Amino acid sequence: MTLLPLVGALYFMVSGGPYGLEELAQKVGFAAGIAVLVATPVVWSLPTALMVGELAAALPEEGGYYAWVRRALGPFWGYQEAWLSLAASVFDMGIYPTLFVLYLGRLSPTLGASPLAIGVLVVAAGAAYNLAGARAVGAGSALMTALLLGPFAVLAALAFFGHTPTAVASVASVSPAAHAESAPDLAGGVLIAMWNYMGWDNASTVAGEVDRPQRTYPRAVLLALVLIALAYVVPFAAMRAAGVDPSGWDTGAWADVARTFGGAPLAVAVVLGGMVSSFGMFNALCLSYSRLPAVLAEDGYLPRVFTRRLKDGAPWVAVLACSAIWTLSLGLSFERLVSLDILLYGTSLVLELVALVVLRVREPDLPRPFRIPGGTAGTVVVCAGPVLLLGLALLKNLHEEIAGMNALVFGLGIMLLGPVAYLVSRRRKA
Predict the structure, then answer these.
(1) Backbone angles phi and psi of 136, in degrees to 5
(2) What are the tens digits of pLDDT across the range 99-132?
(3) Helix axes 75-92, 65-73, angle to 10 degrees
């Protein structure tokens, strides 16, 4: 992959457009939502993007963050990094077929009434696309980015320059006064923003398939960060300028707003964009996660069959095995999937941040084409923001339940299985 395909893949690994931000608007409103969308990338995304830029350029190995943590902290913690990431993927990858079905239901209620069957088809289509290799996934992601952002560009222009009081009134389901009386859920809003801004390290697992990774990764992550922030903030600013009331919003509200400002054609375009977004995110993340079993197999922790690749480099056994496992989470609700995803992904991110600092101390002479400014002290300060936000996510998870169990306890149980799996894999390797 060259620069633009990598930017496209990163865009879908992290974002996929403003879809999924409807709950943020409902929880805090557009004005506070804009503040959250501006502050979150500074505290959460920029540090992780800088980390990926430095480590992916210094250690451009397939497996990405697994290789970073293994080198800095040893094989045990490297395995835990892979375990946490793959465990998070089980819940992460269930989100996108769920969103695909929600938007499909806007076009065809009959098809939307079969969420499990359609979800399985989405998983199968993503697996088939990934068998074409990283280059095909990257090029397709760049094209899908343009397709899904087009309707939002039109919607924002209409909201900024062409709105009328009648249009605004027809969008609002609850009066602005009623919305003002409801207490905003700022913590819940930040949690949603974190999910919409996370995943910068996912592109690192395909470093072996990127052209000139030392140069390409730093440029790609910074370009993608700017693109994603603009794609979030501009539509929110347009809705606020038009006076739209967000209190009745839920998943799919963008289509209702598009119908009000641009009629049925724009609404259909936004719905189709939502389906493109959901599939694009699943497709790009399948590219990332499927490389982990292949690398673990190369290191002897999984059966050698996972190392088998097609001529285009796609680890086809790993792609098919991961896709089969991801179908297990298709029945969970959106909020539960997000909570578990952030908990498990956040823990793996902490290991990556620790590896970043440890490598700075232990290997100061390691060639780093891109380096986070400020020395080791500056690097530690940069890492503080994501850790603080992860603490907020933990507090939020204290009251969430999964399968009749506290979400935090459920997540900790999954984490504790990591050392057990490592011992079993190590014995098999021996």
Answers:
(1) -65, -40
(2) 888 888 888 888 777 788 888 999 999 999 999 8
(3) 150
